[in-house]
Specification:
Elements (H helix, E strand, L loop, with lengths): L2 H23 L5 H20 L21 H11 L8 H17 L10 H8 L1 H8 L6 H14 L30
Helix pairs in contact: 1-2, 4-7, 5-6
């Protein structure tokens, strides 16, 4: 035991003896009971002083992990970034799905920004999905799944574009536009 532990034991013993003497003096306790109380108090004080060495909380050992590009950490980060604190899908994911839908509609010859092509967009995606995509309300996971199912049903662009498609203004030497499908 350290020196301060002995001081604590002596202090507790002196206080216990004085308290027991007062209780015997006023006939609250008998002499044998007072002696037993002092002995018990001194024993607890000695045990307390002897076991005073505390240790820190144990921790799991740190393991070194190799961070690989595209590994589990990226998938985990992507999974956690889908939902916000409110349980709805985040704006970042909604923007990506809207971009994907617009790219897929353009690949099918439908301009999503043109109000005249709304019937064609409704025919391809469905009226409910198109209305939900244009709304400003944050969607649930099930709603986004419905959107992705509708976009997936569109499939790749057909070999013959519908007659509503605008003629291409791209020159043969210009690079192809980047769509959501071919972004990495």
């Amino acid at each position: 035991m350290r020196s301060w532990s002995w001081r604590r034991v002596i202090t507790v013993t002196v206080i216990a003896v004085l308290c027991a003497a007062g209780l015997v003096f006023w006939n609250v306790l008998g002499l044998s009971h007072a002696a037993a109380a002092v002995a018990l108090t001194c024993t607890i004080s000695v045990l307390w002083a002897a076991t005073d060495a505390t240790t820190g909380d144990p921790e799991w050992p740190r393991t070194v992990t190799e961070a690989r590009a595209g590994g589990r950490h990226d998938v985990s980060d992507l999974g956690w970034s889908v939902f916000g604190r409110d349980g709805f899908v985040t704006d970042r994911v909604v923007r990506r799905v809207r971009t994907l839908a617009a790219d897929r509609l353009r690949a099918h010859g439908v301009d999503p920004a043109d109000p005249r092509s709304r019937p064609d967009a409704e025919r391809l995606l469905g009226a409910t999905v198109l209305r939900q995509l244009k709304s400003g309300h944050p969607p649930t996971a099930r709603t986004v799944q419905t959107w992705l199912d509708a976009i997936e049903r569109l499939g790749p662009a057909s070999s013959t574009a519908p007659s509503t498609a605008r003629p291409s203004t791209r020159t043969p030497s210009a690079p192809a536009p980047t769509t959501e499908e071919n972004r990495a």
